[in-house]
Amino acid sequence: MLSYRHAFHAGNHADVFKHLTLSFLVRALLHKDKPFFYLDTHAGAGRYNLHSEMARKNREHESGISRLWDEPSPPAGIREYLDAVRATNPGRELRWYPGSPRIVRPWLRDPDRMALCELHPNEAHLLAAEFAGDRQVRVEHLDGYQGLKALLPPPERRGLVHIDPAYELKDERKRLLQAVREGYKRWATGIYALWYPIQDRATADDFLRRFKKLEIPKVLLAEFSVLPDEPFRLSGSGMIVINPPWQLEEQLRAALPWLWERLAAGGQGRWRVEWLAGERERGAE
Q1: Is there a contact between 176 and 163 (Cβ–Cβ < 8 Å)?
Q2: Is residue 70 flagged as an active site residue?
Q3: What CATH number should be reported for the domain holding residue 75?
């Protein structure tokens, strides 16, 4: 049963952290002229109206993107993320929050491609309408894990896979780990960015332990929380990045303290960046 609708949560602290990280990854791919491929396995609706009834129910964006919208001088990396959000808002008013496809789309060059998978029928319909006529974007009404099998490896050798499920199914984490294992076998040169919620520390830590058992050689972890850990409450979220590009660790370490100061509730929560597998784990500098 698919009941999750991201419009209830659009623009919250988890979206800001996730899309800031995503913007770092996409911009790293622009450093070379060769084309890249972007695959979003759980793409959602594309954009979300923050004035809609769903968004107004909990007003989660007010403790997320709304706190950054009028920042006069954000750091360079955060400014570029905010520019991507402003690209969806032609006026000065913050009315729309872009989903991950809309965050990425402004940075695609002519030879680059994007493939978007979405299983929820209503979201898939909105997503298809959002990118209708865009020849660089392929929209699939498809289970994202099946999309990993169908669309990897791409002709391009470079690219990014974004995996961002709703975690509404009991076996979601198991399915995700299986999909990552198979996807990495198909396309070991790609960057993979996996988002996960932090609703209780024990569940998040168990997921990370199981991820490490995949024995993928180079994995960076970042977490960002704005509230103390408490069961059944989204206190924060994490991003697991396979094959992180050069300087991603430094970019996150520079940006997250600034972001935490503005979004954390009364100085609660925390942020961290560390290696699950790879350079620092083996003692490299």
Answers
A1: yes
A2: no
A3: 3.40.50.150
143 annotated ligand-binding residue: yes
- Residue 257: asked if its preceding bond is cis (omega within 30°), the reply is no
Is 190 a known ligand-binding residue?
Answer: no
Distance CA 174, CA 165 (A): 12
Q: Please report where in the chains the tokens 């972007």 appear, as a residue.
A: 38
Cα separation, 192 vs 39, whole angstroms: 9
Tally of domains in the chain = 1
pLDDT along the chain (285 residues), means of 10: 69 97 98 97 95 90 95 94 95 94 97 97 96 98 95 96 91 95 97 96 95 97 93 91 97 97 91 90 37
- 283 within domain boundaries: no
Q: Report if pTM > 0.90.
A: yes
144 is in an annotated binding site: yes
Catalytic-labelled residue, pool 164, 171, 200, 205: 164
Is 272 inside a domain boundary?
yes
